[in-house]
Amino acid sequence: MSEERCEVAVVGLGAMGAATLYQLAKAGVKAVGIDRFAPPHDQGSSHGDTRITRLAVGEGAAYVPLVRRSHQIWRELEAQSGEALFEQCGVLVMSSSATTTSHHGAADFTANTIELGRTYGIAHEVLTSSQIRERFPQFGPIRDGAVGYFEPEGGFVRPERCIATQLEAAQALGATLITGATVSALESLGGGVRVKAGERTLVADKVIVCAGMWSANLLGEPFSALLKVCRQTLYWFKLAEPTIFPEVSPSFILAHGPGEADICYGFPPIPGEGSMKIATEQYVALNSIDALDRTVSAAEVDEMYRKQVAGNIAGVTSELVKARVCTYTVTPDFGFIIDDHPTLDNVTVVSACSGHGFKHSAAIGEAVAQRCVSGASQIDLSAFSLSRFA
Ligand SMILES: Cc1cc2nc3c(=O)[nH]c(=O)nc-3n(C[C@H](O)[C@H](O)[C@H](O)COP(=O)(O)OP(=O)(O)OC[C@H]3O[C@@H](n4cnc5c(N)ncnc54)[C@H](O)[C@@H]3O)c2cc1C
Q1: Residue that finishes a domain, picked among 290, 315, 330
Q2: In angstroms, what is the span from residue 55 Cα to ligand 1's centroid?
Q3: What is the distance between the alpha carbons of residues 293 and 280, in angstroms, rounded to a whole number?
Q4: Cross-referenced SUPFAM superfamilies, in alphabetical order (predicted)?
Q5: ∠167-152-122 over CA atoms, to 5°?
Q6: Residue 173 belongs to domain with CATH number
Q7: Same domain membership, residue 263 and residue 193
């Protein structure tokens, strides 16, 4: 069978791949995007209706320019497509007691978020426990000594719509999509890369791998040693009636105890749905991604409600409306990897996951496309290099 040629092949069209393909097409590059499924889909890390976005990214300063630029790109895409992608309902990061909670590698996540808000001149309010109680009665009980950070420019994005919109825009700009084809091998050929995608073989000048939880399988070492995949569960609980949620309620992250597990996050009730999406995080690595259990048991629902919802979020019942399973792909320091593959020439790896990647994805796509076209990106990506794990 003949080999198809392109300038750039993007492997994986989830959050990072769809953004990268769109930006490459926008830059006039002859690009092909390949996915094992038909994105947007519910098999990877980018489904479940909503993703929090916030400018004061408590995970670290290197992320701030990415999320800022992403907010601009979501708005540009909305203007082009007419789709609602970014809901700027504000975001509230809070503790419910004086105890600090670590999250995504930051020892005191709320304090870190406040510090970043100050350092980067991000509009925000620091709230005392009584101010949180007064303005946001849907959370709590909030104990004395608790602290809150409210950022009006934050909110949530709609992941499936963002992916679909960028893929449609990429195609309109001339990109080719190959779906239902699994890339099984990448072979460097001096000047290019041979890509085996299902029954097809492509030769690309460059390849960008955005394969989410499947990255380690495709890329081998050092990725198989660095990346762990963790099962996550998302829950939509029915609202109590009459609802105490105001018409505009923020996305939130609520740290309610000292342990890594004492944290939950959620979204405002979506009008007409009568439920609220709430989740927490687990960092137990799967032995194999084939072993991922995509069902959510009654025991898990019960535990989620008891440990995370009851006593922390008022106005939500224990009645489950729906639940979904998703995955985090996590590096040892919870940070992203955006770098060249150390042994496969002309292959770039974008493993921007670790549970907090979506908000940055539009700008990551742009920066990776710039790096691919001109060798450098406007936003500095050096914090995401592989060498930090050497
Ligand atoms: C439960 C949960 C909650 C989250 N909450 C937030 C949040 O509130 N805010 C936030 O910013 N981020 C959040 N994140 C993180 C964010 O969603 C992820 O960082 C992001 O979606 C990861 O995108 P990705 O492109 O790396 O992976 P994916 O979207 O999974 O994409 C990978 C793609 O590669 C394809 N693929 C893989 N292997 C191959 C192959 N060999 N051949 C062809 N195709 C292949 C897959 O089919 C898939 O489409 C959350 C993640 C989860 C799971």
Answers
A1: 330
A2: 20
A3: 17
A4: FAD-linked reductases, C-terminal domain, FAD/NAD(P)-binding domain
A5: 90
A6: 3.50.50.60
A7: no
